[in-house]
Write a structure and sequence with these properties.
Length: about 350
């Protein structure tokens, strides 16, 4: 059963400070209801009282329906033990959030937020998948926004590798956006993850909601990872929030010919940490690398992989030169390069250069 007192307060359009005052002053639903119905909140401005009276009508409707419309939805406020600890240090942290699933993991593990372009390329997908897979031995959560592109890739990669993942929505928690992520939404919950939103139930995915959503994505994490993003990508809004919050930001370099890497390459130029391999992420998180058993990863290379492997040696070689020498479709090439990285045969360096790993 949802806490109607908390629901009433967090859905009323007043400031966080006012919500704190009301919660501390009136203690429970019945007390606040009597004060509102009898119009006894004389110490508060009339506009504030009217807002609570207006929101009470919706709360009454929910109570009459015995909260069937919000089954499995929970509320967490700043005083609750499960509220994300990392958000408490920011003045603009929401007084309360709606959530579904297992929220306790948020405070039990390190949180890494992965964001990127909605129009991601094969390169961005492969890098995200590779990175998340290599993070599977560690006690971490993957946080993202369940948007199209890199966000969805990061969530799915986490699920595939048995990593808890947390989706922060720019809509009400009962509004799945984009609609094509209906299955992903439920897979996150089915695999022990969590869905979070600060917006009232039924809130549509309005454009103004996403900058607010992004500050939570960055605020919850210990490290923000940016895999792809154009010059005007919404990803850069998350980066801006992370910078204001004093977060570490690590960026995956991309081809100078890719429009989806122009924003990320500029971030590197402006001083962001550069992602070259998983060691960079672990160092920023102060995590010691563990030895991974690769016995289930085949070391037998196909003929095409062998050709690529022969082209790449101890001297870094750019992706464009590999394409010319191997003469293979770019999408297939990226897939094979990704597989060779997983087998730890080659390494991707800054600027889309590749080098062989000598074992």
């Amino acid at each position: 059963m949802v806490d109607l007192f908390k629901l009433w307060i967090i859905t009323t359009e007043v400031s966080n400070n006012m919500k704190k005052y009301i919660y501390d002053e009136y203690h429970d639903f019945d007390t606040l209801r009597k004060m509102v119905i009898n119009d006894n909140m004389t110490l508060l401005p009339k506009k504030i009282v009217e807002k609570f009276q207006k929101s009470y009508i919706k709360i009454e409707e929910l109570a009459a329906e015995e909260c069937k419309s919000i089954k499995d939805i929970h509320i967490c406020i700043i005083y609750d033990i499960d509220y994300p600890i990392s958000l408490l240090q920011y003045e603009d942290a929401p007084f309360g959030i709606f959530y579904k699933g297992n929220i306790s993991t948020v405070n039990e593990k390190k949180n890494i937020s992965i964001v990127g372009s909605r129009k991601c390329t094969r390169y961005g997908i492969d890098v995200t998948n590779s990175m998340v897979e290599q993070l599977s031995p560690y006690e971490i959560n993957i946080v993202s926004g369940m948007a199209k592109g890199i966000d969805s890739v990061a969530h799915r990669a986490a699920i595939k590798n048995n990593i808890n993942t947390i989706a922060v929505l720019g809509s009400g928690i009962d509004v799945i956006y984009p609609k094509e992520n209906y299955r992903l939404y439920h897979e996150i919950l089915e695999n022990g993850g969590c869905i979070i939103s600060e917006f009232p139930l039924g809130t549509p995915p309005l454009s103004r909601n996403f900058p607010m959503r992004n500050r939570i994505i960055s605020g919850m994490c210990e490290l923000l990872v940016v895999t792809e993003g154009g010059e005007k990508s919404g990803t850069l809004i998350t980066v801006g929030a992370a910078l204001e919050q004093g977060k570490n930001i690590i960026v995956v370099p991309g081809s100078i010919f890719s429009s989806e890497s122009k924003g990320t390459n500029k971030l590197i130029k402006d001083g962001a940490y550069v992602y070259t391999d998983i060691e960079d992420v672990l160092n920023l998180l102060n995590i010691s690398r563990v030895s991974i058993d690769n016995k289930n990863i085949t070391t037998v290379k196909s003929k095409l992989e062998e050709r690529i492997y022969q082209v790449i040696d101890d001297n870094p070689i750019h992706i464009d030169k590999i394409i010319k020498l191997v003469d293979v479709d770019i999408n297939r090439l990226y897939k094979l390069l990704f597989e060779l990285q997983v087998k730890e045969e080659i390494l991707c360096l800054s600027g889309n250069f590749y080098v062989r790993i000598n074992k």
